Structure formats: structure tokens, C-alpha cells
Amino acid sequence: MAKAELFQKDIPAEERVFYYASEEDDPIKTDEQEKKVEVGLPEGYEFIPKNPFVKLYSAMLFRIFKLFGQYYERGYWQAKFYGREKLKKARGKGYVIYANHTNPFHDVFGPALVADRRIFTIISPVNLKIPGIGKVLPYIGGLPLGKTKEEKQAFNDAVDERLKQKKVLVIYPEAHVWPYATKIRKFPAGDRSFKYAVRNNLPIFTMTTTYHKRKDKKRGDLPRMDVYVDGPFWPDAKLSEEENRAKLAKEAYDSMVKYSKKSSYEYFQYRPKSAKK
């Protein structure tokens, strides 16, 4: 299966089927994943830069990135956004956005256009190896997961600090990109990724991308997008941390399932291997 080409040009219909054994199968792998190379963080990696010039560079790069995202999302994907006014209910607080993982390029730009402030997105260290954009990701808000005990602690401290700064944390709980998928998959990590909102007593929102046929044929059969924001969903002070994680995970999943049903076009098909002849 092609990689970037999946999102840059129309693919023949016969090549738009992926047979999976598990919802945790990965249709798109980087070279490191295919070779099963364990990718860690660079030595001395700073999750929150201290150098003022690096901070200024990061802020400027994010503005440019967001401006380009406007053109890319609305021009290339003809994206329409609904429900962003709901984010006003979290005014004065940080919050977490959970989104379905269906397009690696849109998944970079989309949350930046949805959110009303600076975003920081949890990513795999493998993404830092992507040619070109990999080295830029930390400056536009990428927060790579740590591998060692020290890296994991630094990562968690950085997440908490960004939320205390009233920024936005973006998480893709489905973990793997399934190109143009119109269904919501179970979250491989269960409710563990909901701990950030719970321990900081902050709300979560969902961002669900749906797919539809274009009215024009300038990009062949490639779909266009509608993006729906829902929430806020809050931790309950009467519940334990574990109960709150489960509560928020269910609310996020149910919300994303509800909006995913608005998709009206299945450009890419996903079928269990048991259905393959």
C-alpha cells in the first residue's frame, strides 16, 4: 500500500481495500516500523525549550503552520468545521481534544484550526524520523512519548505544564492511522490516555472527521471532509481517578461514534480478513 500517495492523489478503487485481523493493525508503517526499529528520543531532548530564541522561533513557526493549514484544509480537502463554539465553555482553562486518526496530514493541521489557542499533540518518537517535517514537529507542538523512565516523567511533566498554561493537548486514542476510515475503532490503550484531564481536573472535547463526496471531480474520487467538535465532558469530583478515566473514555468514544455516522462516503474500505475470499 502506498503511504503519502494515499493522501495526495486519487487511488484506483481496487487498491482501496484493507483487510485487517485486528483493529490494532497498522495499514501505514514508516520504514522504522516495517524494520521493527525501536526509535527513541535524541539525547538531552527538551520537551519544553528554555532558550528564548527557540521559543520565539516555535511561536512564529506555529503561526505560519496555522496559516498554511487554513489553505490546506479548506482548499485541498474542502473541509467544513462545526461546533467550535462549544470550546468557549472551557474559556480560561486548558483542555484536551480527542480525535479520530484517519489522515496524517489533516491530523496535523485540523486541530490547530479547531482549537482557539496553541495546541500540543502527543506523537510517537517514530514521527521525528519522517523526512522533512519530522524535525519541525516539536516546534509546532509535537510531544513525543518517552521510552525510558526519565523520559516518561519529563513527558508527563511537560503535559501537565502545558495544560497549566491553559494550552490544548491533542490525542489520537485510536493510535494508528486508518486512511479515510468512517468508523471509530476501540482505543488500544483503553482509558489510560484520559488521565491527563482527570489529574488536572480539566474538560475534554472530541473532534470527529467525516468523509463525503465532492461536488467537483478536480481530485477524482478523493473525499472532502466535515469536522465536528463536541463537549465539554468533565471529570466528576465524586468519582475516583480510575472511574473518571473510564467515564471520559466512554463519553469520548460514544461522541465520536455518533458523529462518525454522518460520513456519507466510504472512499477506503476496511474489511475483516475473515471476509476475504
Note down, in words, how this protein is organized:
By secondary structure, this protein is α/β, with parallel strands linked by helices. The protein has one domain (25-272): Glycerol-3-phosphate (1)-acyltransferase, CATH 3.40.1130. It has 7 helices and 9 strands; from the N terminus they run H-E-H-H-E-E-H-E-E-H-E-H-E-E-H-E. It has helices at 5-8, 31-34, 52-76, 106-114, 149-164, 195-199, 241-260; strands at residues 17-20, 80-82, 95-99, 119-123, 142-144, 168-171, 204-212, 224-233, 269-272. The strands form 2 sheets. A 7-stranded mixed β-sheet has the order 2-8-7-3-6-4-5, with helices on both faces. Strands 1-9 form a two-stranded parallel sheet.
The CATH C-level name is Alpha Beta
- What is the CA-based Rg, rounded? 19 Å
Helix content: 25-40%
What's the average pLDDT?
A: 90
What separation lies between the terminal Cα atoms?
Answer: 19 Å
Could you say how many structural domains there are in total?
A: 1
Q: How many H/I helices?
A: 7
Residue runs with pLDDT of under 50 for 5 or more positions: 32-37
Q: Characterize the overall form.
A: globular
Q: The CATH topology is what?
A: Glycerol-3-phosphate (1)-acyltransferase
* Helix/strand/pairing category: alpha/beta
Strand order of the largest sheet: 2-8-7-3-6-4-5
Strand content: 15-25%
Secondary-structure element order, N to C: HEHHEEHEEHEHEEHE
